[in-house]
C-alpha cells in the first residue's frame, strides 16, 4: 500500500514557509513630469504636466493645473502660448510651429519655479513604400498571413534619430516590445550605417506582437498606418532607456531608474522628468487586398 504522508508533510512545510514580503519603494515625494512631445503637422498640440506616484501604488499620476506654458521659435522669434484646456493639459492649435532646423525653447512657470528646455526641429526619413509578404506558419512566423515592412530612407548625414510608430486597424502598437527607434538607418550611432533604407529589424517593426512578443500576421482587409517622427538625440536616449526599463525583468533585472530628460529647473539647473521634442512627421498607410 502506497503512502503519501511524506509528500503531504513536505507540501505543508512549503506552505508554512510562505510569508508576505514588503518591498521598500523609497518613494518620498512627488516629482514634476512634463510630457512635451510635439509634432509640426498643423494639428492641435498638447503638453501634459503631471506628478509622479509611488511605483508600487498603482495609482494614476495626478495632473497639474495652474502652469504658464510657452514655446518660442528662436529662429523666427515667434512665441506660442499653450493654454490649459483641461486639467494638466496645455494646448495650442493655430498651425505649424516652424520649419526643419528651427531652434525652439520651452518655458514653464509653476508655483514660483521656472523650467526650461531647448530643442531643434529635425528632419525625418522619407517613406518610399510599405510592402507585404505572405509567410506560411513556421518557427519564425507563428501565424500564417501577410507581414509588413516599412521602406523608409534615412537621408545622408550622420546623427538623424527617429521614432517609428505603427497602427494596425487604427490601433496604436504600444506594447513595450513594439517601441521602435532608429539612429540613422540602424539601432545606434556605433553601427556606422547612414544614408540608406532602415535595416530589416526596423523595417519589420510595424508588425504587431502577441503576448509572447512574436509577430502577428496581417490578414486580407487589415490595414497598417506607419509614421516616422524626427526626434532629438536627447529624446532618442530617453526612449532607449525607457525601453530598457519597461522590459527589465527576470532574476537579473536591474533596479528601476528614471529615464534622463532634457528639461531643467532654471533656479538650480537640476533636471526634471520628461522630454521636450518637436517632430517632423512622415506617414503612409496601406491595406492588405
Helix fraction, binned, reads 10-25%
Shape: globular
Tally of strands: 16
Distance between the terminal alpha carbons, to the nearest Å? 67 Å
Strand residue content: 35-45%
Average of per-residue pLDDT values: 90
Radius of gyration: 23 Å
- Low-confidence stretches are 4-8, 10-15
Q: In what order do the strands lie side by side in the largest sheet?
A: 1-2-5-4-3-6-7-14-15
Q: Report the structural category.
A: mainly beta
The helix/strand series, from N terminus to C terminus, equals: HEEEEEEEEEEEEHEHEEE
What is the count of DSSP helices, taking H or I runs of 4+ residues? Answer: 3
Give the biggest beta sheet. Answer: 9 strands, mixed, barrel
Q: Helix and strand layout, with pairings?
A:
Layout: H1 5-16, E1 32-39, E2 45-51, E3 68-73, E4 78-86, E5 89-92, E6 103-110, E7 113-120, E8 126-135, E9 145-153, E10 161-168, E11 171-172, E12 180-183, H2 200-203, E13 223-231, H3 233-246, E14 263-265, E15 271-279, E16 281-287
Parallel strand pairs: 1-15
Antiparallel strand pairs: 1-2, 2-5, 3-4, 3-6, 4-5, 6-7, 7-14, 8-9, 10-11, 10-12, 10-13, 13-16, 14-15
Verbal overview:
With 289 residues, the protein is mainly beta. Helices cover 10% and strands 38% of the residues. The protein has helices at 5-16, 200-203, 233-246, and strands at residues 32-39, 45-51, 68-73, 78-86, 89-92, 103-110, 113-120, 126-135, 145-153, 161-168, 171-172, 180-183, 223-231, 263-265, 271-279, 281-287. Strands 1-2-5-4-3-6-7-14-15 form a 9-stranded mixed β-barrel. Strands 10, 11, 12, 13 and 16 form a 5-stranded antiparallel sheet that branches. A hairpin with a 5-residue loop joins strand 1 and strand 2. It starts with a helix and ends with a strand.
